[in-house]
What we know:
Elements: H1 4-21, E1 25-27, E2 40-42, E3 45-52, E4 55-62, E5 65-72, E6 83-89, H2 97-115, H3 133-138, H4 145-155, H5 160-170, H6 175-193, H7 196-211, H8 215-225, H9 233-240, H10 245-259, H11 264-271, H12 286-290
Antiparallel strand pairs: 1-3, 2-3, 3-4, 4-5, 5-6
Helix pairs in contact: 1-2, 4-6, 4-7, 8-10
Amino acid sequence: MADIYSALSDIVSGIDQTVKDCGFTVVVPDGTESGALPAVNDSGRITIKYKGENKALKVEYFSNRITLFGASKEGEILESDYSKLSVSLLDPETCDSKDTKYIVNEFSDTLIENFGTKAKKPTKSKLPQPVSKAAAKSGAVSYDPNTLANRFTAIYPELREEYKANCDKYGQFLAEDFFMNHGTPVVLETIRQNDPVKMRRLFNLLNEIYEDGTNETQSLIAVTILGAMDNDQEMLANCVDYMCKDMTSPVINVNKYLASRGGKGAKMRLENPPKYKPKKAKKNKGIMSSLGM
């Protein structure tokens, strides 16, 4: 899809009903031909604006990224009133219908979360039960992402409240949300410091959980957590002596893939995961599957 206007038209069309349901109408610039994309192009920065009662939106494309901005304020809304709600990669040379559909879903979920009228506050929940070491070692069950987080916060107790808040917010544990925003940054800092005691403690946990974990848990460790090293060779070198044999190759391959041209879209999705939707989701094979792991 070489034409950025074609991609933007698909996205604007895809979010049209959600935009209307949230109380917005598109702002058509003067001189726009009938049926044309209602956009303003200012030196390559393409903007589509929407207005509502005491609120406004704009979709902006610039430098291979598409961003959804929103504002809510009584009276006149100025450019300084907008805040960034969601951002995704949009390269017109490589994007296809799968990419535009992802952006449509992401923007629609973001609109509903910020401007929908049916939002409900989640009820406070009990913490999910972790899988015991005995059960995992016996082969009866495998370690799940919640068990990783539960034991992870024993190593990093300052994150215990964030773990509890995650469970309370969603009524279950959302691993991607917790690790992307809280767990992964402290892991990266530990790897940069390369303190032997801290590294052994961290990788003793990661190795154990990885070896007896579900596919989802292994992907969480190799992609979401250790894939965030961004193929930094010094950081990878710090980890090699601590990673178990089963984990070393997947982690190195994931880092190479995410740093490659083909992995740009996957990396953007990791950094900007879709908003949580409280309904049954289809199983996603993810990056590990695409690498043949």
